[in-house]
Amino acid sequence: MLARIQQLIVLAIVCVAFAAVAVGVQRGIPWLGPAAIAVAVAGYAGVIATEFWLLHRSYSPGERERPSATELARAWATEILIAPRVFLWQQPFRSASEPDHLPADAHGRRGVVLVHGFFCNRGLWNPWLRRFRAEGIPFVAVNLEPVLGSIDAYGRTIGAAVAAVERTTAQPPIVVAHSMGGLAVRAWLASQPAARIDRLVTIATPHAGTWLARRARSPNAAQMCEGSDWLRALATNEKLGHTQLVCFWSRCDNIVFPTRNATVTEADNRELAGAPHVAMAFHPAVIDEVLRAVRAPAAAA
């Protein structure tokens, strides 16, 4: 479903661009097409810049962890380059290009389940999936639907993926989750006390919510609002051992702020210096940590 929505968004952008070019040619205004494209790009960059401005304001003046203007500018430039590839190509058109990999000879090998975040699909993980397949690592990457539904509704999909990997490998899998996906996995674990995973690696997950969701309208976005009843209930009900939880976070996260909300007390919290929200999903340190855990002996992983 999300792929179709994002395909329509891309189609609309292309149609508007072609229309501007056509009108410019017809009326003898050759600069109209390029100007319309430039306005669209500037608008996109401006929206991302607004997120970083709000992130900057979430820190108190003089706060030690407050990123510098240079750090924020670099993170902004990184995000405006990476996000279009994800939202205008990988997810709309390539979400099924890397099918799940559960080979018959995977018994005894550690597998991975990958869970995307808000308004995303499994296409987010394509670079990971290509590498996993090349290295013979079993994996399942899920699509969380309904796109704008409750986070609790995603548990069945996550549970089925975990069960499929464990059936194939005879090992509890490592679960990797970006953004909202980390909350979806925690909620599923809270509802399934007997569920087995090796560990949960979250990337830019709003474990304590995010200020950006305070005006949310969809159920899943509202659940991610800082201090929401849903988050308090999750913290009370879950039984995930924090020694099983690795949280990657960044002081330059333009979606999850206050940025320490992407950490959990007593978990293994690791900062990705200067990394923005979407880019964190492709950070080499995250991939290296997951590969290290996958390759470790079963007793030590």
Account of the protein in words:
This protein is an alpha/beta fold. It has two domains: 2-93; 112-295, Rossmann fold (3-Layer(aba) Sandwich), CATH 3.40.50.1820. Helix content is 46%, strand content 9%. It contains nine helices and six strands; from the N terminus they run αααβαβαβαβααββα. The chain has helices spanning 2-26, 32-58, 69-93, 126-134, 155-169, 180-191, 219-223, 229-237, 284-295; strands spanning 112-115, 139-141, 174-178, 199-203, 245-249, 268-271. A six-stranded parallel β-sheet has the order 2-1-3-4-5-6, sandwiched between helices. Helix 5 (155-169) crosses helix 6 (180-191). The longest helix is centred in the first third of the chain and has 27 residues, at 32-58. The chain is globular and about 70 Å long.
Domains, number:
2
Please give the CATH architecture of the largest domain.
Answer: 3-Layer(aba) Sandwich
- How large is the count of helical segments? 9
Order of adjacent strands in the largest pleated sheet: 2-1-3-4-5-6
Which structural traits does this protein have?
301 residues, alpha/beta, Rossmann fold, six-stranded parallel β-sheet, 9 helices
